[in-house]
What does this fold into?
Amino acid sequence: MIKIAPSILSADFAALGHDIARVEAGGADQLHVDVMDGRFVPNITIGPVVVAAIRKRTRLPLDVHLMIVEPERYISEFVAAGADMITIHAEACPHLQRTLAQIRELGARAGVALNPSTSPAVLEYVLDDLDLVLVMSVNPGFGGQAFIPTTHRKIREIRARLGDRSVDVSVDGGVKTDLAKSLADDGASTLVAGSAIFGAADPAAAVRAIRDAATGR
Ligand code: DX5
Ligand code: ZN
It folds into this structure.
């Protein structure tokens, strides 16, 4: 079963509760929350206070994507705010294994994100320390960018490395309805989509359309 994770980066931040309710009505499986620090990526978004506010408005699992340097400094705050999953960037984390263990010790699911130019080989010695891999199909920092096609090959390679482990493989960036089926076939289990959902006239219908496309309906 493919999971659909709307990225609130493309939602209306002045009407976030309303926008979240719309994708929840469309059957979204989890919410993807993009945290940017203006250092790891050239943009600044939100912090734990907003995650805590979202937590009060939805029962959906919160998938918090940390695009920040030194993520280990903020993990406990995001878990306390209500994050169910915390994803850190391999490129921002010299002590990747330790930081993944820290996330799990705090009771959240631990994820590693890889920039488009990062080899899946960096996962080799943390395969048993992670619950999800977030494959970036754009260079992180902004919504609405074009999908980078080498992502297909990378998802397949990651699935092969994971073997029979029950680890989620999530794809993030430029995901549109027409890519959903091929990404699911590659081995993706979660599709993150921002502009394709919140940029649509009917975000609930957009969630359903991506799911239907992914499952070949
Ligand atoms: C990019 C973010 C993505 C972004 C995706 O840095 O990590 O989650 O919101 O937006 P779209 O789907 O518009 O590419
Ligand atoms: Zn993201």
